[in-house]
Design brief:
With 234 residues, this protein is mainly alpha-helical. It contains 10 helices and no strands.
Length: 234
């Protein structure tokens, strides 16, 4: 029962950490609704794309069936690394939602099975979901089957909540701008906290070892960043 209850906040935290940027994209999409691009296209496309990401992440759960839990817990270093990288590169530019939308607007082989508008939204969700897979895999791998089902259920519920919030934000431009401006500053800390939770929950590292590992990761990220800058200046 305790595992069932703890899986709910874990699912909520993981979803928010990986989908704050999706909220901005969904807000943009809902602001473009017209007679040929309806709200249902956005909602169905979002669910389709998100379910694809979840299915891809289930590889982590299957690995958890054969690997020791403390080994699987080390995968918590993935969200920590992503979070540290985001934190140390807050000023770097990322692909804009409009660019992602334009890239996914081409014809697809699945257009005969669903509307092109729905496929376009699904493609945007998948293209923007690399961090989802990287974080969901270790989370799923470190979960029992009952916890996994609860987390996925929470995810699917929150997809609908996300769509509703984004729809409402289309009439609140000030809120949308605020989220777009400060959302990236909040995400790194959530990702790092999620990775720390996974590692400590599985007893993969002691708190001291985890602290040292995070410091080493920060040094490596800074070295890679400085070398990239030097390479670009050549």
């Amino acid at each position: 029962m305790h595992e069932f209850i703890s899986a709910i906040p874990t699912g909520i935290t993981a979803f928010i950490a990986t989908n704050l940027d999706d909220l901005v994209i969904l807000t943009l999409l809902f602001s473009q609704v017209n007679p040929t691009f309806r709200c249902r296209h956005i909602v169905i496309g979002q669910y389709l794309g998100f379910c694809t990401l979840v299915i891809a992440s289930l590889v982590g759960f299957l690995g958890g069936l054969v690997l020791p839990s403390h080994w699987i817990g080390l995968l918590g270093l993935v969200p920590i690394t992503i979070g540290l990288n985001c934190l140390l590169n807050l000023n770097s530019d990322s692909s804009s939602p409009t660019e992602l939308e334009n890239e996914s607007s081409h014809a697809s082989p699945f257009s005969s099975f669903m509307s092109p508008q729905t496929y376009g939204v699904a493609a945007i969700t998948i293209a923007n979901g690399s961090d989802n897979v990287a974080i969901y895999m270790p989370l799923f791998a470190n979960s029992e089957i009952s916890e996994l089902l609860v987390i996925i259920g929470v995810f699917l519920l929150l997809v609908g909540v996300w769509c509703y919030i984004a729809y409402k934000l289309t009439s609140q431009s000030a809120i949308a701008n605020l989220l777009n401006r400060y959302g990236n500053n909040f995400v790194p800390f959530v990702l790092i906290g999620l990775g720390v939770f996974i590692i400590l929950e599985s007893a993969s590292l002691t708190p001291i070892a985890l602290t040292v590992t995070c410091i080493v990761l920060m040094v490596i990220i800074k070295i890679i960043q400085s070398r990239k800058i030097n390479f670009q200046s050549l």
